[in-house]
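Something for you to look into today, if you have time. Could you write out one complete protein record for me, on any chain you like? The space below this message is yours for that.
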Amino acid sequence: MKQRLCSLFPPLAAAALFLALLLDPAGAAAGMRDGLSLSLGTAVPALFPFFLASSLLISTGGAAALGRLLARPCRALFGLPGAAAPALVLGLAGGYPVGARTVRELYEQGLLSREDAGRALACCNNTGPGFLVGLCGATLLGSRKAGFFLYAIHAISAVLTGVALARQPGEVGRFRPQAVECRPLSTCFVEGVQGAGVTALRVTGFITTFSVLLRLLRNMGAVDLFARLLAPLCPLLGLPRDCAQALVLGSLELTCGLSALPAGGGRMLLPAISFLVALGGLSVWCQSAAVLAGSGLSVRPCVIGKCLHALLAGALSTILLSMAPRALPTFTLSMLSPEPGVLPGTALLIGSILLPFLYRKARRHLV
């Protein structure tokens, strides 16, 4: 019965989408315009240079040199070879899905094994400082310092995610990376531009698609329904109840969720922003899946890593915010908000760190 229901879901979902487009063509067209505006005006200009830079860094041998330099900290913290270091650096500098694309290229160049690539995907696919400082800090919170605070939390929780999911000493294999073939810079540049263009087109397609879906869901009232169901849980996490709709939207498309956060929330919004940015949302997951398509790598480790990263980022933000003085200049827009409780954040932090170890222990018992 369960298998039959699973086989019926894809055609039913496709039929529902077709019917929604017929019933609300104006909403679909508006969502399309919003998605293209966001993609071509913000996402692609910010991501394309990093797509190109990651290709050039790997194809010219720069990634191998960086890997040798950072081999010890990568092995000690994440149980990964130094070759994974470029993915972590570019992922934290460029934003989604630069980290996933870099991991794929390292894997295809023979610098990472399939297992190491999967582990790297769990902690190397992150957002960049431009998004957090520019959009989240300066635009949403009116403070670039708040943006830098968010970026520090994002980077620290990404490292903690990698540490929590790191291999145990007995699990380390004997994979030997392949030597990178030296090619002319002109060849590397042309191939890098072509690859970056294809990846940018994929990102544009998913951002536009999810913009259409969100506009249809909002017009149908589905977003409001899920927000009402989620609202009672927000106070337990130290969040205002009116953050529920933003959490629902952000779980599907990150930028839409951030733009739906209540105005004037100030410092109370920091845990919600940290959670949403680290989670990425279904759109980012699909972008990562598209980047990995055809490589033989699964997007599953990336999704698991993003969920754990979101819990850690939200918990760390709640704890640090509770410890910070109210007069801290970073949060000057938020003097009317009550302090979030530190206990939910502490519980989330401890639970998030312990979860991977419990998962590995359960797997060993099952085997």
Observations:
- The chain has one domain: 25-166+183-366.
- The chain is about 75% helix and 0% strand.
- Residues 361 and 367 are 10 Å apart (CA to CA).
- The first helix runs from residue 2 to 23.
